[in-house]
Amino acid sequence: MKAWNPHSAVSAIISSPQMVMALVFSNLLSSIDPDKFHAVISNAGKDSPSLVATGKQAASKDARRGMAAAVGLLNIFGEALKAQKAAGEPRRQAEV
Hints:
Structural class: mainly alpha
Order of helices and strands: HHHHH
Largest sheet: none
Number of strands: 0
Helix content: 55-70%
Distance between the termini: 42 Å
Shape: extended
């Protein structure tokens, strides 16, 4: 039996798909302008914009790029849920 090597254990954790996804997501979040984020969040509770104003925002290249990424992620989540159901894995319920 091999002796436990902390370097290989750390390497295995860092190179795991979950860690890679967490690092990519963290990098994406750190690139968001906090002032713009705060402005959007703080305006969310105020009067709702007109449908036309919302449509203009949704038609921007950045909004379309974000929507495409969101739809892509929804497809990935849906595929994972389908595979989980097909495998017969029980869904985990959040602990209260």
